[in-house]
């Protein structure tokens, strides 16, 4: 069993999160539908526009899971809670610097999508960019919509309202050089602690507050996973980099804070749930005895 996290964004943080906090009893069950894998500060799950939740579902599988958790509650409670430091340690191992690619050595072309790890300072240097793009409020697909007016989504085949999504063009710098990259949606919002709605309001007014400019332009040293792809710019293929995940670098002090038991000892594992075949066999043996 692996303990994981779920990040609730936008309307889910205002409604579903409140209802989840109201759940009572030991090991309440919730079903998450159409979640996506999130790698911001570790591996977990996050909501997207089409996600939904069913809380305390009255179905046999949920009741069986809750009963199994109750029977193994002591073992489950001994599992380590996922912390930011622990998640970073799982993704980026500072004892293996060869995994980090220097910016000078980044490829200028790739045959297929590649993921590369770099370490450097992230900052916004272009303040004439749009900072957002408009997506469909139902399917979250990028659109060519302008303004706040409803538009026709070719994916949903209906008229919908546009939803602002964060999109920041940033510069990443290490001791060998700099490279431009783009960070999207929740990753951009989490990195700079700003919402797409706030960016949209300031961008439409054409006046970013000084506090936001200082926040975006301040260098932030991070480990960054870059997704390298080829893009056609008017008939010219160029290698572009999108930020796939971000995590803060781990220094020696942080490593000392990680308990040895989490790094060196194997974690206690709850008993495996018996398969239906094993349950049936056990039931058969009991009846014949």
In which range does the helix fraction lie? 25-40%
Measured by DSSP, the beta-strand proportion falls in 25-35%
Q: Radius of gyration over alpha carbons?
A: 23 Å
Distance between the termini: 34 Å
Report the mean per-residue pLDDT as an integer.
76
The major beta sheet can be summarized as: 6 strands, antiparallel
Shape estimate: globular
Structural class: alpha+beta
Uncertain stretches of 5 or more adjacent residues: 84-98, 250-270, 275-279, 281-289
Secondary structure tally, helices? 11
Q: Count the E strands.
A: 13
Order of helices and strands: EHHEEEEHHHEEEEEEHHHEEHHH
Topology:
Blueprint: E1 6-7, H1 11-14, H2 16-21, E2 30-33, E3 36-38, E4 44-46, E5 52-55, H3 60-71, H4 73-77, H5 84-91, E6 114-123, E7 132-136, E8 151-153, E9 158-160, E10 162-174, E11 177-184, H6 185-192, H7 196-205, H8 210-217, E12 220-233, E13 236-247, H9 252-257, H10 260-263, H11 276-288
Parallel strand pairs: 1-4
Antiparallel strand pairs: 2-5, 3-4, 6-10, 6-12, 7-10, 8-9, 10-11, 12-13
Structure description:
By secondary structure, the protein is α+β, with helices and mostly antiparallel strands. The protein has eleven helices and 13 strands. Strands 6, 7, 10, 11, 12 and 13 form a six-stranded antiparallel beta sheet that branches. The chain has a three-stranded mixed beta sheet with strand order 1-4-3, with no helix packed on it. It is globular, with a radius of gyration of 23 Å. The two termini are 34 Å apart.
């Amino acid at each position: 069993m692996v303990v994981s996290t779920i990040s609730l964004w936008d309307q889910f943080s205002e409604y579903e999160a409140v209802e989840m906090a109201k759940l009572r009893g030991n090991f309440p069950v919730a079903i998450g539908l159409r979640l996506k894998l999130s790698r911001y500060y570790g591996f977990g799950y996050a909501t997207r526009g089409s996600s939904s939740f069913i809380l305390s579902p009255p179905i046999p599988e949920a009741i069986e899971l809750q009963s199994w958790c109750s029977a193994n509650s002591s073992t489950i409670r001994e599992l380590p809670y996922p912390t930011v430091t622990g998640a970073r340690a799982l993704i980026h191992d500072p004892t293996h610097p060869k995994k980090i690619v220097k910016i000078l050595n980044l490829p200028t072309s790739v045959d297929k999508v590649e993921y590369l790890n770099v370490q450097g300072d992230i900052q916004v240097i272009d303040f004439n960019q749009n900072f957002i793009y408009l997506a469909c409020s139902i399917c979250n697909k990028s659109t060519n919509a302008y303004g706040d007016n409803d538009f026709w989504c070719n994916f949903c085949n209906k008229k919908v309202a546009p939803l602002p999504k964060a999109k920041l063009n940033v510069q990443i710098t290490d001791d060998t050089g700099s490279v431009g990259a783009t960070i999207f949606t929740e990753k951009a919002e989490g990195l700079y602690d700003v919402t797409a709605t706030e960016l949209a309001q300031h961008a439409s007014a054409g006046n970013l507050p000084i506090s936001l400019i200082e926040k975006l332009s301040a260098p932030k040293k991070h480990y960054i996973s870059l997704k390298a792809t080829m893009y056609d710019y008017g008939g010219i293929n160029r290698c572009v980099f999108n930020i796939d995940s971000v995590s803060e670098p781990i220094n020696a002090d942080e490593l000392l804070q990680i308990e040895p038991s989490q790094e060196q000892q194997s974690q206690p594992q709850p008993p495996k749930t018996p398969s239906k075949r094993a349950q049936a066999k056990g039931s058969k043996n009991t009846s014949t005895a």
